[in-house]
C-alpha cells in the first residue's frame, strides 16, 4: 500500500500531499517530502491539523530547527516563547511588532536580510483564519529564471543586489518613524546574487520587497529591473495561490520560492504557526564585510 501520494496543483509549482498524519515522521515519508519539495516548490497537506508538538516533531525529522525572527522580538518574554514555534498574528497576543507581519503582505523570501545561511524551508499550519483574504501566494523563482529569454539571462546573470530590511518596511509606512527606522537599519545590508546557482546546478532568481539596489546600476534603473523581475516571476504560469482551510499544513522551498499574503481582516484573529528549517548555504554577505575583504 502506498504510504504517501503527491497530486500536482499546477504544471510549474505546487503539489497536494496525501499521507496519514501518524506516518508523517517515518524516514521514507520525510525523504519523499524532501524530494518533492525540491521539484514542486510548495507542498500542501490538506487539513492535517498538526499540534505544535507534531509540527515540531516533523520539523526536527526534516532538518535542523531554526527561528531567525526571535532577535527581532522586543519583549523578552515573548522572545523566549517564540523559540520553538513562531505564531504569526496581528492584534492581541501577537509576537512581533505589527509592521513585520504587514511586510509579509508583499513578495519576499524568508531570511535574506539576516546574516546567516538562508533558511531552507518554511512550514506553516493554519490555526485560525480570516473570513476574507489571507491566501498565501507563492512564485517559483527557478521557473522564472529558466523561462527568461536567453538575452535577458545573459544581461542579469552576474548582477548583485543589496537587500535591506528598511526597503521592505517602506511598503508598510507612509513615513517610517525615526525610532523604527533606526531599528530597521540595525539589520545588515546584504549583498546577494540576483541569480543564485545552487549546488545541483539549478538557478533561481532571488527577489522580494527587500531587494533594494542593483550594484553597478543607477538606483532607479535597478529598482525598475527588480520590480519587472518580480512581476515576471509572479505571473500565473509560475505562481500558486493557496486558499487556506483550518488545519492545512504547507511547506515550501525557501531557496526557490518567494511568497506573500493577501491582506485580511486585521481583527479576525488570523493565526498561523510557523517553523523553519536551517539552510547550509550562505547566499550573501553584509556590505561592510565585502567592503573590507
UniProtKB/TrEMBL annotation:
Highest taxon of the lineage: Bacteria
Pfam family for this entry, one: TauD
Enzyme Commission number: 1.14.11.-
Entry-linked Gene3D superfamilies: Clavaminate synthase-like
Keyword vocabulary terms for this entry: Dioxygenase, Iron, Metal-binding, Oxidoreductase
Residues annotated as domain TauD/TfdA-like: 6-275
Molecular-function annotations in GO: dioxygenase activity
InterPro entries: TauD-like_sf (IPR042098), TauD/TfdA-like (IPR003819), TfdA_dioxygenase (IPR051178)
Keyword Repeat listed: no
PANTHER family: (3R)-3-[(CARBOXYMETHYL)AMINO]FATTY ACID OXYGENASE_DECARBOXYLASE, DIOXYGENASE RV0097-RELATED
Protein family (similarity comment): Belongs to the TfdA dioxygenase family.
Descriptive protein name: TauD/TfdA family dioxygenase
Native organism taxonomy: Bacteria, Pseudomonadati, Pseudomonadota, Alphaproteobacteria, Sphingomonadales
Amino acid at each position: 500500500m502506498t504510504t504517501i501520494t503527491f497530486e500536482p496543483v499546477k504544471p510549474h509549482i505546487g503539489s497536494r500531499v496525501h499521507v496519514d498524519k501518524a506516518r508523517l515522521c517515518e524516514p521514507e515519508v520525510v525523504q519523499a517530502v524532501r524530494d518533492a519539495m525540491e521539484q514542486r516548490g510548495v507542498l500542501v497537506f490538506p487539513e492535517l491539523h498538526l499540534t505544535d508538538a507534531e509540527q515540531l516533531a516533523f520539523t526536527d525529522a526534516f532538518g535542523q530547527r531554526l527561528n531567525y525572527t526571535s532577535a527581532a522580538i522586543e519583549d523578552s518574554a515573548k522572545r523566549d516563547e517564540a523559540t520553538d514555534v513562531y505564531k504569526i498574528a496581528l492584534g492581541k497576543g501577537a509576537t512581533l511588532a505589527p509592521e513585520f507581519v504587514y511586510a509579509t503582505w508583499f513578495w519576499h523570501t524568508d531570511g535574506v536580510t539576516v546574516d546567516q545561511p538562508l533558511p531552507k524551508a518554511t512550514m506553516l499550519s493554519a490555526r485560525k483564519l480570516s473570513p476574507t483574504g489571507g491566501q498565501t501566494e507563492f512564485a517559483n523563482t527557478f521557473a522564472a529564471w529558466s523561462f527568461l529569454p536567453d538575452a535577458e539571462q545573459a544581461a542579469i546573470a552576474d548582477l548583485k543586489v543589496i537587500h535591506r530590511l528598511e526597503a521592505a518596511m517602506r511598503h508598510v509606512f507612509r513615513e517610517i518613524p525615526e525610532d523604527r527606522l533606526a531599528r530597521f537599519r540595525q539589520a545588515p545590508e546584504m549583498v546577494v546574487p540576483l541569480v543564485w546557482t545552487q549546488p545541483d546546478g539549478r538557478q533561481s532568481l532571488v527577489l522580494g520587497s527587500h531587494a533594494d539596489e542593483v550594484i553597478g546600476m543607477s538606483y532607479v534603473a535597478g529598482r525598475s529591473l527588480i520590480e519587472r523581475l518580480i512581476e515576471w516571476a509572479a505571473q500565473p504560469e509560475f505562481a500558486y495561490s493557496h486558499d487556506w482551510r483550518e488545519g492545512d499544513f504547507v511547506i515550501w522551498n525557501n531557496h526557490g520560492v518567494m511568497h506573500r499574503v493577501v491582506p485580511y481582516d486585521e481583527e479576525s484573529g488570523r493565526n498561523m504557526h510557523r517553523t523553519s528549517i536551517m539552510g547550509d548555504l550562505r547566499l550573501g554577505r553584509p556590505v561592510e564585510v565585502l567592503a573590507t575583504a
